[in-house]
Amino acid sequence: MGSEEIDLAELPFSNDNSSLHDTNVLDSTRGSINMVSPIMPYHFNTNIIPSKPEYIFQLDTSRSRPFTLRLTYITGSGYITGLALGGSWGIVEGCIALFRLQDASRKVRITAMLNSITRRGPLFGNNLGILSMYFAFSEQIIRRFRNNQDNLNKVFAAIFAGTLWRCTKSLRATVIAGFFGGIVVGCYHLFDDSI
Question: Where do transmembrane segments lie in this chain (predicted)?
């Protein structure tokens, strides 16, 4: 056991000072890239880099982020996105209002612009944040019920979230919101998987 020789070419890093003049050479015999510099005269063997994630236990392959982390991320990103979209719409409305208020003072025009931004931004942010929170809760419930993690959970969660979001309106608005949520998320995952 003590007299076995170790082949340095098999190690991820080996001290090969024979090609110090080369800066970036592809070694086709061993499949490694020699990145040699005066500071670190080593080359890295790219054959040992795994092509997919490695897990210690088989159970780790089916794990995802914890629910509270996903809830915070989905709700926060929905709120910020709604705030940005609503603020953009408010800027457009404010610019239209500025053309109508050309004879007014500068203070009145700035106030009109800020009023239109703050009227639309928080409204869209709150609505999209609540819709995102409904989606996160629905997805968690469906994931627990089906005991499976796939894109179908997200489609069902979007249908349920849209339905729940518009359930205080008419039955027609509720069905349309659920259908629209399912179509949007379904198309997203259809094109996301094809890319």
Answer: 79-99, 173-191
